[in-house]
Fold:
Amino acid sequence: MTTFLQIVARDVRLAFRQGGATMLVVVFFVLAVALFPLGVGPETAVLRRIAPGVIWVAALLAAMLSLDRLFQVDFEDGSLDQLALAPLPLELVAAAKCLAHWLSTGLPLVVISPLLGVLLELNGEAHAALLLAMAAGTPALSLVGGIGAALTVSIRRGGVLLSLLVLPLYIPVLIFGTGAIDAAAMGLEGGAHLLVLAALLAAALPLAPWAIAGALRLNLE
Amino acid sequence: MVNWHRLANPTSFLKWSRRVLPWASVTTVILLAAGLYLSLFVAPPDYQQGETVRIMFVHVPSAWMALFTYAVMAGASATGLIWKSPLSHLTAKAAAPIGASFTLLALVTGALWGQPMWGTWWVWDARLTSVLILFFLYLGYIALWEAIDDYTRAAKSTAILALVGVVNIPIIKFSVDWWNTLHQPASVLRMDGPSIHPSLLVPLLVMGGAFTGYFIVVLLIRLEREILARQAQVLRRAQLRS
Structure:
């Protein structure tokens, strides 16, 4: 357990100190969302209508762009080999790294998302749904994205390939994430969508680290 | 009784495949001819959709095959990871482009059918969207094979990817029932029997058989080619080393 927490703490610390990676992800998220009013025009009704989707798509891209950091650096400098030799099972190492990725990129996105809701004139009731949906959806993004990151860890310039692998797998989160906010914005009960999001997370939580560890082992042979 | 385990050996597989291929090809051609005749001339035009209903006889089998191929791919990937049988990964690799083509065919015929029926080429309906996602899954799978040079690593990595993508197949299958917007719900595979009239069902099933036969024929040809390419690669390496 201590090893698990040490890995989490190490990765979070690295993410905050190495060139402000966390800061960059948040700035990207806000900037990407801020481009939409410039693109589609400033009408409140339009912005309010597209806000859930825009915020989620930007979150997806922000989470994806930070994925290459998840294993790449450790793979290149050999720390991943050391982690694989540690008494902790590689599955738990993978889970720890995903948790650290979520803490350093997903959580800041969740925290900043109400601000974006305000920028895009989201309804009052939809704000709570936005926060809950982001909180349930972004951990799933880190876990599922970890699979893509592990599969492409040894490929040079694997960024584009990574997006091709990961974005299709992100779609269920996008559908139910926006569904929850849309439902709340129209005054409907959005609980079902949130429950499905939670179910996706619950399924990804045991399965993704397993797949990640399998993919990492291939690359460490 | 065929000893299926023996087919895991590439050399005996090649022998078997070359014996089976002509028969499979002839069966496919016959089924395809019969299916086309039944669907173009025998099947009655729909009282609402008119002659355009005949697009169904290509559209529905391609959609079936799009899913079926992915299932074959995932099954082969799992077999390869678990039993490390040499042909499994090559089977999955050979199947992927065929599956991608079927998926594209399903999407294109769907658009051609949707234009006269729904008045639009494309609808962001759940089922259409998930087939599009399936297409991207195929592309990602093929791209990952291309991106990794080392054969063993590529084979295992793509196998993991295929198994991860399998999560998508139930979503496609049941998405109609979850969201159920414009696309009609499943009408052949249902608990209370098919709701489609036999005059349309029979040509549809014959076409389904023809598509499956086509898949098997192309898979055998591609697999043979993959085996030979792999053997050539191994030989060339051995030659370089000595």
The mean pLDDT of chain A is 87.
